[in-house]
Every structure is written in C-alpha cells, then in structure tokens.
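To: structure subgroup
Subject: Chain for Friday's discussion

All,

I'm putting the inputs and outputs inline so they're searchable in the archive.
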Amino acid sequence: MVRVECIASDANGVGDPAVIWFGARRVEVRAVTDRWFGSDRRWWKVETAEGVYILRLDELSSEWELAAVVGK
C-alpha cells in the first residue's frame, strides 16, 4: 500500500494523484497520462521524475496500491 495525495476532486470525491508517498519518500506526479475505471476500482498511469507508475484505488476500501512500475 502507498499513500497518495490528490488534487481537483470529481463529483465522487476522487481527484487525480499529485504526490505518491513510498514510506517517508515523497514523489511528485509530473503528469497523469491515462486513467480508466472498473466497477469498484480506478487506475491512473502517472509520470514522475523517478519513472512511470500505474496506481490503483479500491473505491470500497479507499486504499491505494502501486499496481505496476512501467518504466523510466
């Protein structure tokens, strides 16, 4: 599990990721390059200075996960 800070909430109260916390390490999101939705989950493909990640939000539990490391 990772901690994610979001900005600009939508009508459901969910915004795009702006900061990812890996423990005590703070990583700023440079850009959201894609997003998609499932029945109870949302995914974001984000670009950071450290690489490209896929983040997943479980809407039932409100828990964020690092779903994949795509590359640099």
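Points worth raising on Friday:
The mean pLDDT is 91.
Residues 3-71 form one domain.

D.
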